[in-house]
Structure formats: structure tokens, C-alpha cells
Amino acid sequence: MSSSDKKAVAVVGLNGELGKPTLLALTSPQFKEYYKFPIRAITTSNNKFDEFSDSEVSYHKVDYSDESSLVSAFNGVDVVIDLGTRGNTESLIAAAAKAGVKLFFPTVYTPNYGPEKNDYPNLLGFKNVFHDDRLKCVHLKVGWFADWVICKPPVLFLSLEPNHAVRVGDGNIEIPVTFVSDIGKSLASLAHHPPAQLPEKVCIQGDAYTQNELFKLYEQVKGVKLIVEERSHDTQSQIAAEADKKQNINIIDFMNVVTATMTSPKRNYIDYNKGEGAKLVNPGIFEWKKIVPEAKKAWSKEK
Ligand SMILES: NC(=O)c1ccc[n+]([C@@H]2O[C@H](COP(=O)([O-])OP(=O)(O)OC[C@H]3O[C@@H](n4cnc5c(N)ncnc54)[C@H](OP(=O)(O)O)[C@@H]3O)[C@@H](O)[C@H]2O)c1
């Protein structure tokens, strides 16, 4: 690839879930030929990652409330990948458009919710579609972070008590997940395409799990017997509706809502591994990480 075809990329929001995995993907042998170096890392903090040399990543400190600081950070950039907290995206898009950026990935790395999202207007009522006539916005939809399902017990078990779990319905509902490292690779794989060739929404899914499958694996690997509370879909929806009305929510409230969306009869499960998005992102470039072997590895280490 000639140097004039390579894209200049800015990555915004380094210190959350997706910053480091995305920088690792952009600078990896699989994708680095497509990009100009150093990759521009746009941050509010003074933190720098040890993993990257100065020639791979340059850090630009910004103030989100000062548009001129964002415009100057984006000057000369072709693509902005927003990985930050929700709520700043509109100001980032405005600054990117002023700086002449052509492609923008808004921070909407959630499941591709359907009508079930509308039942929870407080917790799931955030804006998740962005459009600006001056640049192309591409929305990457990813399922749940598989890393969270493995490492944050309330995400899988819906309980804060050790070895307690709530099974919703028959426990066989397929829940789509993607590992954050694969989300980074997917962004690195998409960001070099001509913007006009990209769809506005790309849905991916590295894998899917059922509660029954992971409960059984957890019991085998940890050598414990889970105390399982059985809960119908209707009860789950009622609990989620109450959680959505609360002023102060905790992780269980949030997980009750997201689990209710997954088990909702309104939900139309689609296996995005077989869809156009997966083919566009990963036409045989990398192996999607699978949740069962990764969970086994992580839970064995914890013993
Ligand atoms: N699908 C899932 O299961 C799932 C789970 C979690 C998150 N997500 C999605 O992943 C994305 C990132 O979420 P996250 O939890 O990693 O985000 P986060 O921790 O809230 O924020 C990520 C980074 O954004 C930057 N930032 C932007 N605006 C900021 C502000 N006003 N105050 C403080 N920091 C700000 C900070 O980076 P700097 O320090 O570099 O400035 C921060 O480290 C979001 O789109 C979220 O919806 C999805």
C-alpha cells in the first residue's frame, strides 16, 4: 500500500474498556500497513501505555468543553474512533467535521437492540444513532463484552452473593458477545475502507452463550454447586421495569435491564456471525475469540 493511501487515525477515550485493545489492533502486524504512524491518541489524562513506542502512538491532551482543542487534535486526521463515555459524541463529531475528518465511529458499542430497548427508557434511552452530512458515521454493534461475562460475576449470575445465580426462562437463550480485543480488531479492519463503501451500521458477534452452558462450566471448573433461583421472563421484565425507574442504580439493576432485553419475547435473535457485518470485518483475517475456552482459562486461574 502506498503511503498516500494510508489513513491517519485518531482514537478518543483511552482509559476505558476499548482504548488499549484498539491501539493494540491498529499497531498490530495484521493492520498496521493501512495506517499512518504514529496513531493519534486523544485523551483527557496524562496516562501513557507502556506497550507502545513514541513512533507508534502520540498522545494529545484535550478538554472536551473546548472545541478548538478537539479541532486541533483532529487536524490532518482521516478517521476518528470514539471509544469514550457516552455524552460527548455530538461535540466530537462537530469538531471532527470542522477538522475535515471523513469517517467517524461513535461510541455505541452495545448490542443491536430492537423494540425491547423502548421498555427501559431511562437506562437504555441513550442516543445511539448519529448522523452528520459532513462526514460518514459508522455504528459498530457488538453484543455484550464477553470479558465482562467472564470477569464480573453479576453480569452472568445476576447476583452479588457468591455461588448464587438467577436463571431466566429455561436458561437456553442465546446471548451474543464479543471480546474487547476482537472489537479493537474489527475497528482496525473497518477504519481503512473508503467511507462511501461502508454501511452506517455494522453488526458483529464473536460468539454467543447460554446461561445453562456457562453455569455448568463454572460449576465444573470451580468445583462448586451454584444455588440457582428460577425466574420467568415475565418476572424478569417486571424487575427490570422497577430497576429502570430507580434514581440510584447498581450493577444488578443494570444487568436486570439488559438481561430482560435479551430474554424479551420482542427480541429477534440474529446470529451476526453469519451476517454481512462479520464478512466485511473479518473475511478470514483473524479468529474470533470463543467464550467457553476463555472462561475455562480465566476461572481455572482464579482457583
Ligand atoms: N457491550 C457492552 O457490554 C459494553 C460494556 C461496557 C461499555 N460498553 C461501551 O463501550 C464504550 C466505552 O465504555 P467504557 O465503559 O470504557 O467508557 P468509560 O470508562 O466511561 O470512558 C472511556 C474513556 O472515555 C474518556 N472520556 C470521554 N469523556 C469523558 C468524560 N466526560 N469524563 C471522563 N472521561 C471521559 C476517558 O478516556 P481518557 O482518560 O483517555 O480521556 C475514559 O477513560 C461505550 O460505547 C459503552 O457503551 C459496552
TrEMBL record:
Keyword list, A-Z: NADP, Oxidoreductase
KW NADP (keyword) present: yes
Domain (NmrA-like): residue spans on this chain: 6-124
Keyword Glycoprotein: no
Gene3D superfamilies reported for this sequence: NAD(P)-binding Rossmann-like Domain (3.40.50.720), UDP-galactose 4-epimerase, domain 1 (3.90.25.10)
Domain of life: Eukaryota
SUPFAM superfamilies: NAD(P)-binding Rossmann-fold domains
Any one GO MF annotation of this record: oxidoreductase activity
Xref: Pfam families: NmrA (PF05368)
Name used for this protein in its record: NmrA-like domain-containing protein
Protein source organism: Pachysolen tannophilus NRRL Y-2460
